[in-house]
Every structure is written in structure tokens, then in C-alpha cells.
């Protein structure tokens, strides 16, 4: 088994990269070698030693401070070598970590390579508003005023989140990377893991002097008045999109969209099915028998329709193109008039005689109810004690 020399090790040579290699090049080289010499893949004892060297090299070269020590000719992992990574020293190997941390380090998860600071400026969320309209408004369209409560850009700091004359400061805890790295000892060797910096919340910067208006968020909540154009023919439940009228994102990010959801109030005369309208009209029995003419008030006009003689109950009249305009395309739906034939409930003697005479002329037999009552009436009187 090889022994480690007291002289500084060539960490660049271990990973096979040049001294000018970028962080991404170092990370790719580490992943390639880690897969090749991982003990689960290569059980050779020499491979295990090689795997430990690869982890040590990546630990050093992925840390700016330790890499600087190497570039100056030192070894940050050697005892007394000026580094903080030796066993027992600050930042050295901690307790064993779980299998997930190892996989993250190998394959680019939470502990694998540097992810970099997350941006303070992020897109905003969408918003939704309920708008109630009458049937006439949904049918023919309307320009409706609306009031929305959303986050808008802070005009004091223009979304920067800093007070006037101040700027963001690089986080001292993570050096602006937005994450902190640690080296942990596992049964496979040392593993470098990274976690979001708790001081800057992963942004890599802090706000020493927040904007007094938005407290550093870059946006404030306010109530706005807008006008939304409702097209003709919209239906209940439809949504109209107003681009970038929703929530402004943190840090003054691009606003989301505002969706106006249509809710149609019930009409006292008409019911709607798609683009067709339906209504009910009651006509007397005599009008249905003899025929008549009705004046129907539509949504935007008055129409005269003929009820033919002999119209039966539950008959329907159709008025073409008197419904709701089509949302897409031209033309309109139809209006359906459902007729309810009303039979009189009370007749005076003369009216009753006229109807009976009319029935006789048609050869229709109409049994006359006895004024003294029928069989069931006599049974009822007997139970009530009447003679």
C-alpha cells in the first residue's frame, strides 16, 4: 500500500487537469474518475487508494481558499500545511454521511458540484379574479372596470431591494457562491458536499441596508384599477388572460398573468345552453286552439311570432339567429320559445255550458260530476256521520 509523502501532492495531476482549469472542468474530471475508481466498480485495493486521492484532490481544488494554498506550493490537507482540511482540524472530515450524500456527490445532486447562487430576481405568480356579468354583457361584450390587489414593482428602489445610495454586499460566509461546502468521511473515503448558505439563503449576496419601502423584497402590494375588454359570446367559467398584469416577482421580476374568470348571473327570463337561449311563454287554451300572435322581447329587439291554431302543450317555436353571438366566427345561436298551454281552473255556469256544448258538437263525451258528489264523496260523508 502506498504511503503519502510529506511534500505537497499534485492535486491537478491527480484529476488530470491543468492549473488553469475552470470549476466546471474540475468537476467533470472528478466525476469521471470517481465513477472509474469507485470501490463498487473497481474492487482493486489500489483503486481504493486512488479513489481517496481523487476525493482529496476535488476537496482542495473545489475550494478557492485551499486551491490558492496549492497554487502557492502548499498542501492544505497535510498536517501543518496551512490547510483546514486535515483530520481533526477545522473543516476536516466529519462523521460518516448517508448513501444519498455520496450519490449526490458523484452524480450532481445537492452535494455534488457547485450550483452557484440563486438569483434574487424571479418571475412572479399568476393571479385570478372573479368577474360577475349579466347575460346581455356576456352576449354582446363589454369593457368592465376591475380592481386587483397584487404585488407591483417598488418604485423607491426599482426592484433592487436596497436603500438609496447602497448596494448588495457579497456574503462573507460563502464568498458569494450561495452555498457552503464540507468534507465528510465515509466508508468509501472523503466526500465533498454542498449546502445552501444559511446566512444569505443561497443568494450569494446580502442586503446591509434594505429599502425602507419594500423591506428588500423589491415589490410592494397595492390596489390597482384596470379595464378588461370582454368579447361577445363568452360563457360562464371562461377565463380571459391579461398578460403581465399578475404578481410582480421577487426582486422586481417579470410579472405573471392575470386571469379574469367570467361568472354569468342568472337571467329572469332566459336560460342559456351554449349560444342558444330558451324561454317559456304561457298562452291560454283558447289562443292555442284558435291560434294567435305573440310579441317576444329578445336580448336586443322585439320579434312577432305566430302561434298556429291547434298548438299543443309543450310545443316549441324557434327564432333563428336571435341567441348569443358566436365567440369565434360569425353568426348567432337561436332562441327557443317553449309554450305552456294554460287550462282555466274555474268556470262560471255560462262558460261551463259553452264548453259542454262545444264538446257535444265535436262528439266528445264529458261526464258531468254530480253536485251531490260521487261514490267516494258519499263514503266520506258516511264516515263523518252525515246521513
Q: Which features does this protein show?
A:
387 residues; alpha+beta; HSP40/DNAj peptide-binding domain; 3-stranded mixed β-sheet; 23% helix; disordered N terminus
Layout of strands and helices, then pairs:
Layout: H1 11-15, H2 23-37, H3 45-61, H4 64-71, H5 99-107, E1 127-133, H6 135-140, E2 142-153, E3 169-170, E4 179-186, E5 189-196, E6 205-206, E7 219-230, E8 239-242, E9 258-264, E10 271-273, E11 276-284, H7 285-290, E12 292-297, E13 302-307, E14 316-319, E15 335-342, H8 349-361, H9 375-383
Parallel strand pairs: 1-9, 11-15
Antiparallel strand pairs: 2-7, 3-6, 4-5, 8-9, 10-11, 12-13, 14-15
Helix pairs in contact: 2-3
Please name the CATH topology of one domain: HSP40/DNAj peptide-binding domain
Question: What is the percent of helical residues?
Answer: 10-25%
Shape label: elongated
Are there runs of 5+ residues with pLDDT below 50, and where? 1-6, 80-102, 107-114
The CATH homologous superfamily name of one domain equals: Urease metallochaperone UreE, N-terminal domain
Which structural class do you get from the secondary structure elements? Answer: alpha+beta
- Count of runs of 4 or more consecutive helical residues: 9
CATH architecture annotation name of one domain? Sandwich
**Most strands sheet:** 4 strands, mixed
Q: Assign the CATH class of one domain.
A: Mainly Beta
End-to-end CA span: 128 Å
What's the multimeric state?
single chain
Number of strands: 15
Strand order of the largest sheet: 10-11-15-14
